[in-house]
Amino acid sequence: MPRLPLQGSSPSPTSNRRRTLIGIIAALSLVALSLTLWSGRNPPAQPAAKLSHTYAQALEQAHAGKPGAARMLYQQLARKDLSPPHRIALLAELSNYPSPQALKLLDASLKNSSAQVRQAAIETSVKLIPDGQRSLLLGPLLEDSEQSVRFSATRALLGLSPDDLGLYFAVLQQSAEAYQEALKTQPQTAQNQLQLARLYLQTGDLEPAMSALQRAITLEPDNLEAALAHIELLDKKGQADQARSLFARLLERHPESALLQHALGIWLRDHGQDEFALLSLAKASELEPANSDYRYDLAVVLHNLDQLEAAQKQLVQILQNDPADRRARVLLIQYWKENGQLQNVQVLLAELEQQNPDDPALQQGL
Description:
The protein is mainly α.
């Protein structure tokens, strides 16, 4: 009969090997099970589609308004591996390329994990989204986890009417008040006092707004932005004569300020004095010939005064300086249509379609 091992004696080498092998198999099974469970929760990322162009090429195409600009811009913004600085630079070009796809990309950027990207997307939305629709997109950001983003959204929505703000009217008031309190705790500067005044204007507190503006002007007597905000406040209080007198004093001290000349032109236009507005707007454009905003506003007033050819020349100049400027292109198409210059209209429409075939202006049969 085979001899049984004595109690307490050491197991045989064969038994040791068997137990070791069983332990290894069990350990490997646990590792395999863990990997299976982990991969189920975190599926491997799909490799990004290989693009035929780089970020730099897309940025250059969009900035220069070249054919295919929108497609390249959209494809780059859709990348998951795009760095925040690159995404911010591309977002700055997006307002010239509107479409349903552009809105989706903007919405995604408003939800980006980077606060800086969300702030850049807010700035783009001001140019891309009409006033009446902006609150739907930016309203949720009034309750963003980052204070800087909340306050950026607040600034972007300032000045919208209660109807434009809709359900976000009360939320904006609360955010503006929180912004006011934050500014009050900071050391006083002309810029933060100017911002404080604008917030008071939003909440309808005219006297505190005036006090904040006076502090801003005391801190920086030559701060033209504060002076122009003072004029806006005088207008809100129905003191147009005082506003006009303040403009006269400012122009006497700063006759070569394009900012001031432009602001006076807009003020005169808004007060139904297009003939006088034309002089100031023309002066502003003369002082800063590369400023597209000044030329655009000059073109609008020229058109209002039935000087259609002169208005067209201003818009043509904008497009020569900046072919990507969609706002000037769309307005020039309208003006050339009015004048019966249909061949020019077709050229501009063809260029627009090459830049962005999904542009709403093309879809609506501009």
